[in-house]
Automatic annotation (TrEMBL):
Gene3D superfamilies per UniProt: 1.10.1660.10, 2.40.50.100
Lineage, uppermost ranks: Bacteria, Bacillati, Actinomycetota, Actinomycetes, Micrococcales
Record's protein name: TOBE domain-containing protein
Keywords: Molybdenum
Stretches assigned to the Mop domain: 64-129
Species this protein is from: Leucobacter rhizosphaerae
Length: 132
């Protein structure tokens, strides 16, 4: 079974180390001690906690949509050139880049510092893990 150190677990789900420690102490995360004597949490319990914390795609949405991959963040770059715009968002630790028409970027009033949500529906998603 996969285990994560407190700091790794916190980074994976976007909370502080103290929050992960508190959840482990409260029994909301399964924890144990690794061979080096550090407290770790199980990957399975961390995944369950992440799902419980994630907002539903339908929470407060006035419409329903088939795309489930939503990344809300802050706009860090808008570059409009001719008919095309490149918009960059920082969504937690993730950088999302979108190419769209310049007209769409203007209609959305996108500017650096504004909040935006990238909704992704892709036919190809590549998953990568570390070598064990």
């Amino acid at each position: 079974m996969t285990h994560f150190r407190m700091s790794e677990a916190a980074a994976l789900i976007g909370v502080s180390d103290d929050t992960v420690r508190r959840w482990a102490a409260d029994g909301r995360l399964e924890s144990s001690t690794d061979s080096a004597g550090r407290q770790v949490v199980s990957g399975r319990s961390l995944a369950a906690r992440a799902l419980a914390l994630a907002p539903s795609a339908e929470d407060g949405a006035p419409v329903r949509r088939s795309a489930r991959n939503r990344f809300t963040g802050i706009v860090t770059g808008v570059e409009i050139s001719g008919l095309v715009a490149q918009v960059e968002l920082q969504c937690g630790p993730n950088r999302v880049v979108s190419l769209m028409t310049a007209e769409a970027a203007r209609d959305l009033d996108l500017e650096v510092g504004s909040r935006a949500t990238a909704i992704v529906k892709a036919t190809t998603v590549i998953i990568e893990t570390e070598t064990r």
